[in-house]
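Students often ask why we bother encoding 3D structure as a string. The short answer is that it lets us treat folding as translation between two languages. Here is a chain of 375 residues written in the first language.
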Amino acid sequence: MVNCVIKCRAAVAWEPTAPLMMEEIEVAPPQEGEIRIKVVATGVCHTDLYHLFEGKDKRGFPTVLGHEGAGVVESVGPGVTDFKPGDKVIPLFLSQCGECKFCKCPKTNLCDRNWSSKYHDIMSDPTTRFTCRDQPILQFMGTSTFSEYTVINQIAVAKIDDDAPLERVCLLGCGISTGYGAAVNTAGVTPGSVCAVFGLGAVGLAAVMGCKNAGASRIFAVDINEQKFEKAKVFGATDFLNPKAYNKPISEVLAEMTNGGVDFSLECVGNTEVMRTALESCVKGWGVSVLVGWTDVKDFSARPIQLISGKTWKGSLFGGFKSKDSVPNLVCDYMNGKIKLDEFITHKMSLEQVNDAINLMKTGQCIRCILNISK
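And here it is in the second language, the structure alphabet:
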């Protein structure tokens, strides 16, 4: 099979803002150092929607979206020794080659060989193993999990426990790892601290979970959709704020409720105004604010006194986790009950229902929808 082209179903985004189209695509055999994966399940993440509705760079189309998946190795290309057919794996939108200056540095989880090093604007490497209607189809974020099969470089695949339930651990491919790690790794939330999480999608709820697991004594959940407050309580939030319920900035409300501001704040929306608000919600002297939500279409700003007064503003990609090393451990943490995954899943659908899933997320009616791709 390794030398055969596979024809399979995939949801193709032919252009920005248009509905995805179910197509038959051709998936080429894995080349040197590559792995072909049968995708079993995938989450629908807001970053998929960002590319489709907000980024709007036509150079990033046509593409197969999806980057939060899990599956089984179908075949491996020449030079692949760490994976074999049948292995359970999670594709990684952030690679870990283990050889570049970033991979060798414990201070970061970046990798110089990742697609984002050169092509963050189109969110895909131009090299692809997909074709449809005789034209190349880009592989979104190097993964493309809205397809029955995908081909990925081995530096962007994590081998996981054989007993792991793929329809749940797929969430560790992006959203849950991102939010959880932003709290425990990037922010470095400390026991007894006071935290605020802005935005209660899957990433924000995972950040709440991270704050709780790190021992925070008080966790403010901030969102304009009050229906999400009950879910936030499940993950450990203690206080709930709707910015629209106040006639003054929510940063001032938080300052009054916490004697000057929170110790840690996490922005999990991808909105530059909310990023500023999250910074302004921190206490002076030692407050740490982390940008977690993905956006690249607007600039952000703040008054210099915010930083001069001793606050720290940081960014977090994939929760600061070195991907190949960390994802297998996170899978074990889930299976041992240390982190939650099931509670994030609000809907389950088939690949053919992908546009319904996108609409649910777009309108804030779901936390995570899992698409069943193949048996």
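Translate back mentally: The two ends are 19 Å apart (CA to CA). Keep this in mind for the problem set.
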